[in-house]
Write a structure and sequence with these properties.
CATH class of the largest domain in chain B: Alpha Beta
Structural class of chain A: mainly alpha
Strand content of chain A: under 5%
Largest interface: A-B, 31 and 39 residues
Order of helices and strands of chain A: HHEEHHHHHHHHHHH
Number of domains of chain A: 2
Oligomer: heterodimer
Distance between the termini of chain A: 39 Å
Number of strands of chain B: 11
Helix content of chain B: 40-55%
Largest sheet of chain B: 9 strands, mixed
Distance between the termini of chain B: 52 Å
Chain lengths: ~300, ~450
């Protein structure tokens, strides 16, 4: 009986394959396109990273020397540090603030639609334009931020013009720009929650905090994780705001990986080194994404 | 309809091409029969890539005049300096640039272009009377200008357009208020900055470039006071960690961090210019090209109060760092001759005079600087032109002529910015020199 089953299964499979064979041809276009636009650039990048390649001179194959040089390059290692520091702040703060604002905007109050729209505005603006405006506001003598500080009697800050305050100041821009993004995702999550658990909790006499912590938080967690993943990848890849506002400076104190990469590729024309940075950067992003995806599995509703 | 190419047709094409090739030389043949003729390449369109600035504005303004004179149409693309440099490098490297003519900075790109052999050599055209009109006054182009345009093995592959000296812009009103005279030496300048600095009134004694990369040229200006440049010898050797270099870095640190505005570590020329034009800085050292905005009533609050002075001398030398820009034609340009004509027009005496008039820059020529017709119509003070003339005899290169000049500026510039944050000059200059040395050695060896 078992044998008969196998033969039938094998027979069906063979028949299926025969039936599918003409259609296999249709895979080719997709295969060719994805090889051309995804796989080839990758292999080429890895190839470039193994060469000493400077625009305007001959390329020389040097194996892993670019990577060895990066491993001891102070500026490169510092830029990894800046990237981590920046990412942690630029993820954590918008996440917390975005969640809080989502809870606020989930409540019903007069003019909610208007305020929601207002709140989402920063996200719709072009990062480069926004950055230029912030650059003007950060100016230590002519900027409006120091004027506000003086109004409340605080001493002026140097904002993005000092190595000590540049990253926190850039984070301010990130918070302003990306809190609405987190809010939208969480708000969507909140809107999809069932109302029954809350009714039950109210009947049982639960406090507001208990309702949030025991019901809302676990139910909305999957949405938070999605926001977390997207924010993290965005924060790692940050470029425009930093490039426009501080250009990685003063000195190299706000130089994140992407800014360093850009300098290598387009300012120094060191295509080989830049490709090596790309490969390392990619490895970091993939590793982090795996961790986050694992976290997402954990956060799934059971 | 798609026409199929048969073997026969292809062969016919080749044969026609063979016939046509000598016909192309009719241009030259015609030239040999006559003198220089501006109309020779009429009907062509030249694609020009210009960096944002007064030169591009002038070119746009007068392109109609050029069209009438030569029958050559210009397609002008204007992009900011940094982006233009990247675009030029990438397009020239590709071998098929989208432009026939472009302007560039000798101190940044010259060596790279020369090593890569991307530019069209024009040495013979300059000697050919059919290709070089007398009105161009090639002999009036300064030696420094021609040396910028000539490769290390003596080939001319560009024409100089204008130069920028570093000079001191100072606020005469603030100087008069404190009874300070214009400084003649670096020591006097430090003392003047101290006397003019008034934190409570929001006035800085000095302002200048503090931001990484851009700041290097302000430092090399100070370094010229110690009679030194950044590289020396052959093969080139870095000398950015000598006692003199460290002394000048120390001076830089003290001048900017004691008497500069808060946040000067992030200042480029535009922040410095903004502060100076608001009347909030007493002295500002930067390139000559800023007279126009400083004297513009719609932008500046210090119109008519600005003095222009030659940079003060130092303990061991006296210099004004100089930067040159020029125009060149890519080797693979589609319309080389017409592009060359356009270049002659842009770098010629007439346009040079116009550039001077609007304070757009100092030409690498002496005639416009002495021409009363030009000087009487200056839109900027006469003092500015006189100061530029005073900078000319003490001019010296402000940056090393090397391929990785951007990286040089970044590495040394980071050290200088760190000084403004309180770091020790000797440590920083030595660290930066050690960091850049292998990069330079490698680039010179290749």
């Amino acid at each position: 009986m078992a044998g008969a089953d196998v033969t039938t299964a094998a027979g069906t499979r063979a028949a299926g394959e025969r039936r599918l064979r003409p259609y296999l041809l249709f895979i080719w276009p997709a295969l060719i396109v994805s090889s051309a636009v995804i796989i080839f650039p990758w292999i080429f990048t890895i190839w470039m990273s193994l060469n000493d390649w400077h625009i305007g001179s001959k390329q020389v194959f040097i194996g892993v020397d670019n990577y060895v040089a990066l491993a001891t390059n102070r500026r490169f290692l510092e830029s990894i540090g800046h990237t981590i520091y920046f990412t942690i702040l630029a993820v954590a703060l918008p996440m917390v603030l975005g969640t809080i604002s989502a809870l606020v905007f989930h409540k019903k109050f007069r003019g909610r639609g208007f305020f929601r729209t207002l709140f989402i505005m920063p996200m719709m603006a072009t990062p480069v334009a926004v950055s230029l405006i912030w650059t003007m506001m950060f100016h230590p003598q002519l900027g409006v931020l120091n004027y506000f500080l003086s109004l409340v009697g605080l001493p002026p800050s140097e904002w993005v013009y000092s190595p000590n305050t540049v990253i926190p100041s850039l984070i301010l821009v990130e918070i302003w720009l990306w809190t609405p993004f987190v809010m939208i995702i969480v708000l969507g999550g909140l809107a999809s929650l069932p109302t029954e658990p809350y009714e039950a909790a109210l009947i049982d006499g639960a406090s507001q905090w208990q309702m949030f912590w025991k019901i809302t938080y676990p139910l909305v967690l999957p949405f938070l994780v999605v926001a977390l993943i997207m924010r993290t990848i965005d924060a790692l890849k940050v470029f425009e705001t930093i490039w426009v506002i501080s250009n990685g400076g003063p000195g190299t104190s706000s130089e994140v990986l992407n800014v360093y990469l850009y300098a290598q590729a387009f300012a120094y024309n060191q295509v080989g080194t830049a490709s090596a940075v790309v490969v390392v950067f990619f490895a970091i992003i993939v590793a982090l994404s795996l961790v986050l995806l694992w976290a997402r599995q954990k956060a799934k509703w059971n | 309809m798609v026409r199929s190419i048969t073997r026969r047709r292809a062969l016919q094409g080749v044969a026609l091409g063979g016939l046509a090739a000598p016909m192309l030389n009719t241009v030259t043949a015609y030239a040999q029969s006559g003198a220089f003729n501006w109309q020779r390449f009429k009907g062509q369109t030249v694609e020009v890539l210009m960096e944002t600035g007064p030169r591009a504005d002038l070119m746009k303004k007068y392109q109609k005049e050029f069209l009438d004179q030569t029958g050559i149409k210009l397609g002008i693309e204007v992009i900011p300096e940094q982006q233009a440099r990247q675009k030029v490098a990438i397009e020239l490297n590709s071998g098929k640039p989208s432009f026939d003519l472009f302007n560039f900075a000798f101190h940044v790109q010259k060596r790279q272009f020369e090593k890569a052999g991307w530019l069209l050599e024009i040495t013979d055209w300059l000697k050919d009377p059919q290709m070089m009109p007398a009105e161009y006054e090639l002999g009036d182009v300064s030696k420094l200008g021609m040396s910028f345009a000539t490769t290390s093995d003596g080939k001319v592959n560009a024409l100089p357009i204008l130069c920028d000296y570093f000079m001191v812009y100072y606020n005469k009103e603030l100087f008069a208020k404190k009874g300070v005279a214009f400084p003649k030496t670096l020591d006097e300048m430090m003392a003047a900055a101290a006397a003019l600095n008034d934190r409570s009134a929001g006035i800085s004694g000095f302002v200048g470039r503090g931001v990484r990369n851009a700041n290097v040229v302000l430092w090399t200006q100070l370094l010229s006071g110690w009679g030194q440049e950044t590289v020396t010898g052959k093969p080139l050797r870095l000398i950015t960690d000598t006692p003199d270099a460290i002394a000048s870095a120390e001076y830089y640190k003290k001048l900017l961090s004691s008497y500069g505005p808060a946040g000067i570590a992030g200042f480029n020329w535009n922040e410095a210019q903004g502060l100076f034009m608001q009347g909030k800085a007493a002295m500002w050292i930067d390139a000559t090209g800023f007279a126009a905005p400083v004297e513009d009533k719609t932008k500046s609050r210090v119109v008519g109060k600005v003095g222009y002075g030659v940079p003060p001398s130092g303990p061991k030398g006296h210099g004004s760092v100089t930067f040159g820009t020029g125009m060149a034609i890519p080797k693979n340009a589609a319309r080389k001759e017409a592009a060359y004509y356009t270049m002659l027009w842009m770098t010629g005496p007439k346009m040079a005079g116009r550039m001077l008039q609007v304070g757009g820059g100092i030409p690498f020529r002496t005639a416009p600087l002495k021409d009363p017709a030009v000087l009487s119509t200056l839109t900027v003070p006469r003092e500015w032109a006189d100061c530029a003339a005073g900078c000319a005899p003490i001019s010296m290169p402000g940056l090393p002529v090397i391929v990785p000049v951007t990286e040089f500026r970044d590495v040394i510039g980071t050290a200088l910015t760190n000084l403004l944050g309180g770091a020790d000059p000797a440590t920083e200059m030595k660290r930066a020199t050690a960091e850049f040395k292998p990069v330079l050695d490698k680039s010179e060896a290749s």
